[in-house]
């Protein structure tokens, strides 16, 4: 980002521009997303809208697709900004598709926190039985906080359920280029065909995670729904990204040799090294760690360190970690129904990660 000329201000940046994304930015995003997420089905620039971050993309969809009181479903444990972004201003009811730790409950042979079509369908029917209007389903894939990559077979199964019930399917793929286990297959919704309902299928991606550029505030909303695109364009003055920032970001994406051959491989290698280091450290302390393939975090079961398995004891352990100045997100803050789970973010500088793991160990030893 410090390359000479990357933020060079010209007369073009002096004037108003398409607030939903400059031509250069939309074309650069379409090219990048095609190379990395949709090699079989090229993303069209006219289906890409630029907004100021993934958060803005969620709010735009809340505004355009749902009315106050409507229901949006999302699997939990979850990234809780989903709840805030849809409910705070646009009053959408965000309801959990509740995933459970099956080591503690009896649900057949499912693995921990398994998502499937039957579970989604049951939740839809439960909400409809209360008289609520269910409008959309929001899937984060790869998942935050689980670090799991969902198979294309499962994604299509979920999309079929949504199609049967007339729901919009929103795929948040913020970590799509942050899959660090090399043998893990990932299929973006952008690369699936045929889609059960193309007009009700929407994808969100942003610079914050895969590009490590949360401060640049660029998100992308990709959809084939022309009516949705039209409405978002007409309200884009509220979500516009400065032209000079788009110019720099487009230049970055268009440097394909650096991005594809240097940055992203290094990004994934460092994530893999940090994930393995963190996992080994947690296991050595006696914790259980949910298998993960992507993202910046691990989902760890610290139940064995709780005197009693309940959310009060989980919060007490969280406070002990905080007393040692290390932050682990308690599962209850991510709407996890089963006590004792924590999300540990490992995407820090190596010396910071080392210190954080040391403080976790110190906390555990004092219990």
Could you characterize what this model shows?
This is Aminotransferase class I/classII large domain-containing protein. It is built from ten helices and eleven strands. It has 367 residues and is an alpha/beta fold. It has two domains: 11-254, Type I PLP-dependent aspartate aminotransferase-like (Major domain) (Aspartate Aminotransferase, domain 2, 3-Layer(aba) Sandwich), CATH 3.40.640; 259-366, Aspartate Aminotransferase, domain 1 (Alpha-Beta Complex). The protein has a seven-stranded mixed β-sheet, with helices on both faces. A four-stranded antiparallel β-sheet has the order 8-9-11-10. The longest helix is centred in the C-terminal third of the chain and has 29 residues, at 256-284.
Compute the separation of the termini in Å: 45 Å
- The count of domains is 2
Strand arrangement within the widest β-sheet reads: 1-7-6-5-4-2-3
Largest sheet, if any?
7 strands, mixed
Question: Can you give the helix content as a percent range?
Answer: 25-40%
The number of helical segments is 10
Q: Would you identify the regions where 5 or more consecutive residues have pLDDT less than 50?
A: 104-110
How many strands in all? 11
Oligomer: single chain
Portion in beta strands: 5-15%
Structural class: alpha/beta
CATH structural fold name of the largest domain? Aspartate Aminotransferase, domain 2
The CATH class designation of the largest domain is: Alpha Beta
Apparent shape: globular
Order of helices and strands: HEHEHEHEHEEEHHHEEHEEH
CATH architecture of the largest domain: 3-Layer(aba) Sandwich
């Amino acid at each position: 980002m410090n390359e000479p000329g990357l933020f060079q201000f010209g007369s073009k940046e002096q004037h108003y521009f398409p607030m939903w994304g400059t031509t250069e930015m939309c074309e650069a995003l379409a090219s990048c997303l095609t190379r990395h997420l949709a090699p079989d089905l090229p993303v069209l620039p006219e289906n890409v809208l630029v907004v100021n971050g993934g958060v803005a993309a969620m709010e735009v969809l809340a505004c355009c697709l749902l009315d106050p009181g409507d229901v949006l479903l999302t699997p939990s444990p979850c990234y809780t900004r989903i709840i805030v972004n849809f409910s705070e201003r646009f009053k959408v009811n965000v309801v959990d598709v509740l995933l459970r730790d099956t080591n503690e409950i009896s649900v057949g042979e499912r693995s921990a926190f398994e998502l499937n079509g039957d579970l989604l369908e049951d939740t839809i029917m439960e909400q409809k039985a209360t008289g609520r209007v269910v409008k959309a389903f929001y899937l984060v894939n790869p998942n935050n906080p689980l670090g799991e990559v969902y198979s294309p077979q499962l994604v299509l199964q979920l999309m079929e359920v949504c199609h049967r019930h007339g729901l919009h399917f929103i795929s948040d793929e913020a970590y799509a280029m942050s899959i660090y286990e090399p043998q893990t297959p990932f299929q973006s919704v952008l690369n699936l065909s045929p889609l059960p309902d193309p007009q009700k299928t929407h994808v969100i991606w942003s610079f914050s995670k895969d590009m490590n550029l949360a401060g640049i505030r660029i998100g992308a909303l990709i959809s084939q729904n022309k009516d949705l695109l039209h409405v978002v364009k007409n309200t884009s003055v509220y979500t516009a990204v400065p032209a000079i920032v788009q110019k720099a970001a487009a230049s970055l994406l268009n440097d394909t040799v650096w991005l594809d051959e240097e940055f992203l491989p290094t990004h994934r290698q460092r994530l893999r090294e940090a994930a393995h280091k963190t996992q080994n450290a947690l296991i050595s302390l006696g914790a259980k760690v949910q298998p993960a393939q992507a993202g910046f975090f691990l989902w760890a079961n610290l139940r064995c360190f709780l005197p009693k398995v309940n959310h009060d004891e989980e919060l007490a352990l969280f406070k002990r970690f905080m007393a040692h100045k290390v932050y682990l997100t308690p599962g209850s803050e991510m709407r996890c129904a089963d006590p004792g789970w924590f999300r540990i973010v490992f995407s820090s500088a190596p010396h910071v990660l080392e210190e954080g793991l040391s403080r976790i160990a110190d906390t555990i030893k004092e219990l």
